[in-house]
Amino acid sequence: RYFQFCKLPGRVMGIRLLRFTSVVIIVLLLVAGALTALLPNIKDDKMPNLRREPKTQSQSALDSFTLIMQTYNRTDLLLKLLNHYQAIPHLHKVIVVWNNIGDKIPEEMWNSLGPHPVPVVFKVQTVNRMRNRLQNFPELETKAVLMMDDDTLVSAHDLAFAFSVWQQFPEHIVGFVPRKHISTPSGVYSYGSFELQNPAFGNGDQYSMVLIGAAFFHSGYLEDFQRQPEAVYALIDETQNCDDIAMNFLVAKHTGKPSGVFVKPVDIRNLEKDTNSGYSGMWHRAEHLLQRSYCVNKLVNIYDGMPLKYSNIMISQFGFPNYANHKNKM
Amino acid sequence: RYFQFCKLPGRVMGIRLLRFTSVVIIVLLLVAGALTALLPNIKDDKMPNLRREPKTQSQSALDSFTLIMQTYNRTDLLLKLLNHYQAIPHLHKVIVVWNNIGDKIPEEMWNSLGPHPVPVVFKVQTVNRMRNRLQNFPELETKAVLMMDDDTLVSAHDLAFAFSVWQQFPEHIVGFVPRKHISTPSGVYSYGSFELQNPAFGNGDQYSMVLIGAAFFHSGYLEDFQRQPEAVYALIDETQNCDDIAMNFLVAKHTGKPSGVFVKPVDIRNLEKDTNSGYSGMWHRAEHLLQRSYCVNKLVNIYDGMPLKYSNIMISQFGFPNYANHKNKM
């Protein structure tokens, strides 16, 4: 075909070709001009973390987090907390894990009180399980998850800071509640907090877990959680407890490092006394702590070893609430 | 030869072969048994950081640090501080940079008061320069350097903890004195501390430098410092100041991250009022802070850009001095 074209008189071809190439060049120049105009204005001394830039979809996934909050029998607290949490900076979406089996979700009321800063999804569950919150929800779009208990209030300042810390330690559980295990001469482990003896080295205390009821962690760990041995799910279902201990085992095993990074909260409150439901949370059960020690030992069997590692790093926000928190007497 | 051997009667060969293989098997079994007996006893729950193991030469280099302390006109403070610092855990050696030009080092007195926990080397200088302490001393064997001003007392607990933090952040300057630069609309930078405005994002304060007069850093940076532009040395010599700011520029440029990690000291003291010499340190000069702002701007020219980055991470030791430092009101 091309050769047939070439049979046309050369002069006519020449003019058509000239017109064609001229049009192409002009179009390219216009496109180039448009692109140049759209280039961002980069200055040398611009601070990192350009938080005021308009967010594209891909930036959102990296620069924001999804709140996952499981709720049972404390809808009044849930709604109170949602008013606060829905407005946290860098929040992408809220996933409410609805463990009130058979009860209608408050979706109508929620919508009637809109508009809301972010989408809130109510995931209706079929069985009231502690580990329901550890599903790999399809609605989850961000790399980061913020998991909160439905009776815990953490200030926006604390959350914004802890999120920035998570971004620097994305493979760790970055949160506000540190716990530890200790080893005893019999080889049996115990679970606890500051009241237990310090692990046997250095001075000060150590922690080996950060509880997920008030923490940021990578959404990839929810994927990993779906691939745990059946015995782990059985243990969590049997105790209706210990999902957070299991997550710490998972993360520690995955990284070979301490699972958590503890961020000292400035303002964290437990609101359970404020509920009208009279329901006061699993940790009030008499056997709660004993169960958790039991879980540690069972998980060591399941994982064929103790993967948890100790850390004594406590992170606070420099100069917040005020500079006195770092000004020294020198 | 082998084939010739084979020509011997088969039965005789068979017995010799049998004996030979029996001996070989017995020897192998004995060797295997000996090896098994020598295997270390590995327990699953053994804590990381096996600090009580006997140290080999290579372990020392990684698991200990060298104190470099420059001194001028405050020998009484130097000796007081050496009594303390020579006994810090994980200290490998002390290098005293002797800026008292023409004065004899107190070596005789030092030796007469031996034995000492670690070797102390006095490096006699020919010119009294601030940057003398940033030489790549041949006596330096460890990966980590602890640099201290000769009037600063930091507790052993703080130093042991900060060293463990440095081991987790070996490419950063891990220390006790945070400072920052700020940008002004004119493009001119200012140097300061909490008294300056907070950099323009988020809440709370930020720091962009950790001063080397009370900090751990990687000895490799002393090597790198020898390869800086001449203008950097000229600046430090001209001001007899700013060597620490230059080091922060070097580290920030090298890592592309904030140069320092601030560890909040529990007990840090400035002893300069305790000296008999009456000498009170460079930072009392009227122009000290203005000089440091000047240095920041000069270094930006020399480095053709501002490499310093902000951080608001403040690290403290979990549960030290007591658990109250993390116990929350929940």
UniProtKB/TrEMBL annotation, chains A, B:
It is found in: Endoplasmic reticulum membrane. The chain crosses the membrane at residues 20-42. It is a single-pass type II membrane protein. It comes from Herpetotheres cachinnans (Laughing falcon). It comes from the Eukaryota. Its main location: endoplasmic reticulum. Belongs to the glycosyltransferase 47 family. Glycosyltransferase required for the biosynthesis of heparan-sulfate and responsible for the alternating addition of beta-1-4-linked glucuronic acid (GlcA) and alpha-1-4-linked N-acetylglucosamine (GlcNAc) units to nascent heparan sulfate chains. GO terms for biological process: N-acetylglucosamine metabolic process; UDP-N-acetylgalactosamine metabolic process. This is Exostosin-like 2. Its cofactor is Mn(2+). Keywords: Disulfide bond, Glycoprotein, Glycosyltransferase, Manganese, Membrane, Metal-binding, Signal-anchor, Transferase, Transmembrane, Transmembrane helix. Pfam families: Glyco_transf_64 (PF09258). The gene is Extl2. One of its GO terms (cellular component) is endoplasmic reticulum membrane. Its EC number is 2.4.1.223. Residues 65-320 form the Glycosyl transferase domain. GO terms for molecular function: alpha-1,4-N-acetylgalactosaminyltransferase activity; glucuronyl-galactosyl-proteoglycan 4-alpha-N-acetylglucosaminyltransferase activity; metal ion binding. It catalyses: 3-O-(beta-D-GlcA-(1->3)-beta-D-Gal-(1->3)-beta-D-Gal-(1->4)-beta-D-Xyl)-L-seryl-[protein] + UDP-N-acetyl-alpha-D-glucosamine = 3-O-(alpha-D-GlcNAc-(1->4)-beta-D-GlcA-(1->3)-beta-D-Gal-(1->3)-beta-D-Gal-(1->4)-beta-D-Xyl)-L-seryl-[protein] + UDP + H(+).
